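Table 4 source record.
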Amino acid sequence: MDLSKVLFITTANDKHAIPAALRDRMEVIDLAGYTYEEKLHIAKKHLIPKQMKAHALTKENIRFTDSALRNIIDGYTREAGVRVLERKIAAVCRKETVRLANGDNEKLDVTDKNIEELLGVRKYRPDEKRTTDEIGLVNG
């Protein structure tokens, strides 16, 4: 079979894991990760509705504020994509489902005030720009 006119399209998270002989025969196109605003939009339009449906929740059960979503993106995820963001949203939805199953029918508003209660201590802190010199610190 003649495959000389066939175009193969592949994806990889780490192009260095592709054997050098194969990578040499490929046209590599690097795609940047999502921007902060794109992640926020994807979470609002796709991830939250998907996880609400998966956990049998409605808008009367749970609501994510924009500031809470920003807090999750900043404090709990450090990735180019949205996989971990979706997992964190799913974790909040699971907690709400358990709470509803235990008889508490009050609507959960996910805000900056209760995000640490729902997801635990922030994993990441914003990078601070140092304005004074300190021994042993290098800004690059």
